[in-house]
Design brief:
Order of helices and strands: HHEEEEEH
Distance between the termini: 62 Å
Strand content: 25-35%
Radius of gyration: 24 Å
């Protein structure tokens, strides 16, 4: 076990770690916005794409299938949406 060191923010005379980070421009906070991914058929651009499971349980998948145009393949297109865009997408799909 090594020696404990005094944190930099104390050695440099700051009152709190937040003040020290603010003066140094350090920003480790995670973004609160969530991103959602949807699969899109590369052939017809529809979002009704489902995974094809293997014959035996737990043996993995056999790829993806579009339920509209019956495309089958290994890699559908993927689109990343913000939380607001995803909610709009869900509302549009519901109608």
């Amino acid at each position: 076990m090594g020696k404990l060191q005094t944190p930099d923010w104390i050695r440099e005379g700051y009152d709190s770690k937040a003040d020290w980070e603010k003066s140094k421009g350090v920003n480790d906070k995670k973004k609160s916005k969530k991103n959602f991914k949807i699969k899109i058929c590369p052939k017809c651009k529809d979002t009704d794409v489902k995974v094809i499971l293997g014959n035996e349980e737990g043996k993995g998948s056999q790829g993806w299938e579009c339920l509209k145009c019956k495309w089958k393949g290994k890699s559908p297109e993927e689109k990343e949406l913000s939380e607001e865009e995803f909610l709009e997408y869900l509302e549009k799909e519901e109608k």
